[in-house]
Automatic annotation (TrEMBL):
Stated name of the protein: Oxidoreductase NAD-binding domain protein
Family: Belongs to the PyrK family.
Domain FAD-binding FR-type: start-end pairs: 3-102
Pfam families tied to this protein: DHODB_Fe-S_bind (PF10418)
GO biological process per UniProt: pyrimidine nucleotide biosynthetic process
Annotated source species: Megasphaera hutchinsoni
Cofactor comment: Binds 1 FAD per subunit.
Length: 254
């Protein structure tokens, strides 16, 4: 697996909600080879944090040489990131991860919970006519529907508070979606309980399901062993950062 470390110039650092930002930066070598499901490790070299931070790749454009990441401001590192202006430079390492989403499948349903929708944007760009389900906390965080509308016109939403779409979690929308559409493949990323619930429904309906795991990681390429888990089927230890982050749901939640 080829990875690069690039000094990436920030082209855009856009506020989407008071706590969520969209960053586009110039990283042509990473953009040229990135695949849906992979991630980058980011560090602002003049910042105060020691370790790099992993972010799923929300888009990679080889033509412009840019990659896009989405981030929620939750700690010291992301608080520093939100202050960066265009022409600022960050260090970006990637693309990382051997486990990526399948892009040759038909009738794919993409389910994003919270910030887990970010890597699914890149997947939606690469497949034909995806069905998309956005599971958000509230109306403010359903901005994802606008971003996905560039790739599909079949978009469903659920909100925890019922302010938009179906009231409830992602699984509340699945009976309706399964009734209205042929679903041959599910790709999901979000909170672990949500992914586990979706994986259970996929298994009941005999639908292949891929999950993108989020784990705390120090290195990002399989050395520190801080993001391992034991596969349910193979029974071997996987490293989320290098073997994943995308796995068959049966390997994770069986």
């Amino acid at each position: 697996m080829i990875t690069w470390v690039e000094n990436a110039e920030i082209m855009m650092n856009k506020v989407l909600t008071p706590s969520i930002y969209q960053m586009v930066c110039k990283a042509p070598r990473i953009a040229a080879i990135a695949k849906p499901g992979q991630f980058v490790n980011v560090k602002y070299m003049a910042g105060s944090t020691f370790l790099r931070r992993p972010f799923g790749i929300a888009n990679a454009d080889p033509t412009t040489g840019t990659i896009t990441i989405m981030y929620r401001v939750v700690g010291q590192g992301t608080n520093e990131m939100k202050t960066l202006l265009p022409t600022s430079v960050i260090s970006v390492e990637g693309p990382l991860g051997k486990g990526v989403f399948s892009i040759g499948r038909e009738h794919s349903l993409l389910i994003g919970g919270g910030m887990g929708a970010a890597p699914l944007l890149f997947l939606a760009k690469k497949i034909k006519h995806p069905i998309v389900l956005i599971s958000a906390k509230n109306k403010e965080e359903t901005f994802w529907t606008h971003l996905f509308s560039a790739y599909t016109d079949i978009i469903y939403t659920t909100t925890d508070d019922g302010s938009v779409g179906i009231h409830g979690f992602a699984t509340a929308a699945l009976p309706f979606i399964f009734k209205q559409h042929t679903v041959g493949h599910i790709a999901v990323c979000g909170p672990t309980p949500m992914m586990q619930a979706v994986a259970r429904e996929a298994m009941l309906h005999n639908i292949d399901c891929e999950v993108s795991l989020e784990k705390r990681m120090a290195c990002g390429f399989g050395v520190c062993l801080g993001c391992t888990f034991t596969g349910k089927v193979a029974g071997i230890r996987y490293k989320v950062c290098s073997d994943g982050p995308v796995f068959s749901s049966r390997e994770v939640f069986l």
